[in-house]
Structures are given as structure tokens and as C-alpha cells.
Amino acid sequence: MEKREMKNLISGLKYSAIRIPHSAIGSRGFTLIEIIVLIVMAGILLPAIVVPFATGVKSSGKPEMVTTAMFLAHQKMEEFMKFNYGNAALNPTALTPYTNTDISNYQWQWEIVYVDNNFNTSGSDVGYKRILVRLKDPENNTYEVYSVVTNFP
To answer: From CA 10, how far away is CA 95, in angstroms rounded?
Structure first.
């Protein structure tokens, strides 16, 4: 081949039918394949980002439930603690069934038993009563508050 023919052949390749004149390389816009690749990558990455975020948002109410449950349990305990050791309100009682509180979906129960000086359940009165207040939140998590009342001055 002559030099001139070679030069024409090379310069003709710039505008050959093989070259895609509307590709994203060197011009504006995206090809269909590039858009499909983007959609596939987004389909893979978005769930990896959204699932932890949704889980975090869902459990964000948990601290509020814990605080409310503990507040209600301590409130019930204070009701018991205002009585003297010999008051009938502090007579030993078995674990009561769950009952609703003032705030919907929270349930509480209590138990008052005689205990010894090591806080083990005792069959007789040796001067200590243990009060247990148990509360369930709307997710059925249980919270317990204990206190001991003594008969000693």
C-alpha cells in the first residue's frame, strides 16, 4: 500500500460504521447499558443501606418504653413503700396476675414475701418483707423493681 492510501484508511476509521457516535464517551448522555448497570448496582446497594436504617428507626422507641416501664414500676413501688411494716397493705401476697396500668399496653404485677437477713424467702416473719414489682411493656419485655421493708427502728 502506498502512504497516501494508508493515510486515507486511517483517517477514514474515525468515521467508520463501527464507531458509535452517540456513546457517553466523549459526548453527553448515557447508553442503555450504562443505565441498566446503574439500576442493577442500585438494586444491590440500596437494601444494604435501607435495612439498617429501618431497623434503627423501628427500635428508636425502645428507650421511651424502658423509661415509661421503669417509671410505672417505681411509682407502684412508692405506693407500697409509704406503708409501715405492720400495715395490712404489706401483708405477704403471692405473685398477682398481670393487670393493666393507667398507660395502655403496660401490665404490672407484684409480690410481697417474708425474707430472712440474706434475702432468701422465709416461711415466717423475721423482720423483713421483700416487695417485687414486675412490669411488662408493649413488646413483652419484663422489668423488675425490688425493695425490702424492715420491722426494725
So the answer is: 95
